[in-house]
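Sequence of Arsenosugar biosynthesis arsenite methyltransferase ArsM (Calothrix parietina FACHB-288).
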Amino acid sequence: MTYLETAAEFYREVAQTPQVGLCCVQSTPLQLPGLKVPLAMQEMNYGCGTTVHPTELANQPTVLYVGVGGGLEALQFAYFSRRPGAVIAVEPVEAMREAATRNLEIAAQENPWFDPSFVQIYAGDAFNLPVADAAVDVVAQNCLFNIFEPEDLTRALKEAYRVLKPGGRLQMSDPIATRSIPAHLQQDERLRAMCLSGALTYQDYTQLIVNAGFGQVEIRARRPYRLLDTLTYNLEENLLLESLDSVSFKVSIPEDGACIFTGKTAIYAGTESLFDDGAGHLLQRGIPAAVCDKTAAKLAALKPTEIIVTDSTWHYDGGGCC
Ligand SMILES: C[S@@+](CC[C@H](N)C(=O)[O-])C[C@H]1O[C@@H](n2cnc3c(N)ncnc32)[C@H](O)[C@@H]1O
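Predicted 3D structure, token representation.
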């Protein structure tokens, strides 16, 4: 069996016998007016954060959702688009497709605005998405890509890039590791399937996103996720996993490198009313301006005594320097 087959087998099991809390995080579930999430769907919430960002889902976007699970986020995306075929869900595990279909039928009974035709579920996987090039506004995946080994993750990211329209967004939530996960855990296929041992470091994860062609990455949230403790996981030191919510844009990569926004701002504290770096960044004296990490580093190096750069908040959702 390959590790991908082990993962499919694991999700067949948890489609048939839900594991409440398999991937859950300490955050308030998204509540939307007029949206009732069926209990069976809540019990199959296998996401480790959220990929649904309500302020960014205007104009009924077409969403391709990879790894449908119990259908929770497919339903949440459908809430914003409300038209047949608005959400295209791709799922290789038959039992999971059946569970999601059942859950969405219950959702239709509990939500007068929802029709099951809004979500179309296809057999398929992250490496061969069943849509044409540049066809969708959003690709979303929650707690799936961390399962993939780096070469497969690269394939999945490139496939997401292919199907996105120019300017389209890849919305993801995944565990990341605060240091490299030792090989004996990475090779444990069941732990990998459970989203506990395939996670990359923040640096490696974001680098692979950029390598796939995404010119701008925005971090929406970063929280503690799970502790791999010394005793249970045969480690010399405890290893903290975090959960990272991100949105990556299909825009070209600037010549001096991709823009990664982590919530930093730059504040000009010099004697003039305005500072212009000549590269498109105007800082008004005393007013924080949101900047990507690349620009933050450049500005700090340019004027070490006059420009203050604030720390990453790990929550960024607008404005920017690029
Ligand atoms: C951790 S669950 C997350 C489910 C859902 N995103 C959620 O938030 O509840 C991973 C999902 O991806 C599916 N999956 C497994 N391997 C896959 C692959 N190669 N391509 C696409 N989906 C896959 C699993 O069957 C499962 O439904």
